[in-house]
Amino acid sequence: MNKLASLRAFVKVVESGSFAEAGRQMRLSRSAISKYVGDLEESLGVQLLNRTTRHASPTENGQMYFERAVVILSDVDAADQAVTQLQSAPRGLLRVNAPMSFGTMRLGPALADFMTKYPDLQIQLVLSDDLLDPVQDGFDVTLRIAELESSSLIARKIVPVPRRVCASPDYLKRHGTPLHPQDLRDHVSLTYGFLLTGNQWKLTGDDGVHWIQPAWSLCVNNAEVLRDVAVRGKGIALIPEFIAAEALKNGSLQAVLANYSAPPLTLYAVYPPTRHLAVKVRLFIDFLVDRFGSGAG
């Protein structure tokens, strides 16, 4: 049995959800994929997949084996690239996951330049505001704008993401302009969900640190939605600066509490730990650090 080929076939079936799709992606017949997986199950004495006529999903044992297999194959690929990187440009598939707003507003031009620099790479970009699992979902790099919890994954800081407290001129005309963080308790807030601080806002000024639990009417995990609702005069929002910038420039939003600052979030590149970081992953992360960390982009 070709153990490595069987591992690749099994991982591809789990990722794609079917033998037929795995075969298409690997340019093999469905029966060849089935034989590889069958040989693997027979050698282990364990059923790895639940099968229907159109779908395949991992059993409990299969899911555990899949997570280990992804790491093993990543190490094999990285080891191959480690000894050939000086002789060849990076090639193959690079799977990237990024937040929706950052992806649509900032990542596109950067990706185009990266593709120009490394034309032999294929890039599959998945935009989502859900916290996808980089290992289980098979991503080489996951970009997150967040306050990261401790994790077995490796996270590299790319650039801080400042935030601004802002509201529409119409809202401020109707409800007044807050002059101190405590004034926010008398306003309606629009909040971003899934931060470690929950819906609390931390604002720091010359008079110290203020933790505010504002009364909120909207909690959402997409900052573009926060911006758009704030523009319509529905409340005060704490929004990443790059998302609010155009609205602040054209006057549809107005910054408030300018003497107080919220701690910035951070754009991280997150990836599974491996003994040999794949060349394509290292080059992509280095490119992002150079592009965004230098203030370009």
Topology:
Blueprint: H1 3-16, H2 19-26, H3 30-44, E1 49-51, E2 56-58, H4 60-84, E3 92-98, H5 100-117, E4 121-127, E5 141-146, E6 154-161, E7 163-167, H6 169-175, E8 188-192, E9 201-205, E10 208-212, E11 215-220, H7 223-231, E12 236-240, H8 241-250, E13 254-255, E14 265-271, H9 279-293
Parallel strand pairs: 3-4, 3-5, 8-11, 8-12
Antiparallel strand pairs: 1-2, 5-14, 6-14, 7-12, 7-13, 9-10
Helix pairs in contact: 1-2, 1-3, 1-4, 2-3
Question: In words, what does this structure look like?
Answer:
The chain has three domains: 3-84, Winged helix-like DNA-binding domain superfamily/Winged helix DNA-binding domain (Arc Repressor Mutant, subunit A), CATH 1.10.10.10; 92-160 and 266-293, Periplasmic binding protein-like II (D-Maltodextrin-Binding Protein, domain 2), CATH 3.40.190; 163-263, D-Maltodextrin-Binding Protein, domain 2 (3-Layer(aba) Sandwich). It contains nine helices and 14 strands. The protein has helices at residues 3-16, 19-26, 30-44, 60-84, 100-117, 169-175, 223-231, 241-250, 279-293; strands at 49-51, 56-58, 92-98, 121-127, 141-146, 154-161, 163-167, 188-192, 201-205, 208-212, 215-220, 236-240, 254-255, 265-271. The strands form four sheets. The chain has a five-stranded mixed sheet with strand order 4-3-5-14-6. It has a five-stranded mixed sheet with strand order 11-8-12-7-13. It has a two-stranded antiparallel ribbon with strand order 1-2. Helix 1 crosses helix 2 (19-26). The longest helix is centred in the first third of the chain and has 25 residues, at 60-84. Keywords: DNA-binding, Transcription, Transcription regulation. Belongs to the LysR transcriptional regulatory family. NodD regulates the expression of the nodABCFE genes which encode other nodulation proteins. NodD is also a negative regulator of its own expression. Binds flavonoids as inducers. Pfam families: HTH_1 (PF00126), LysR_substrate (PF03466).
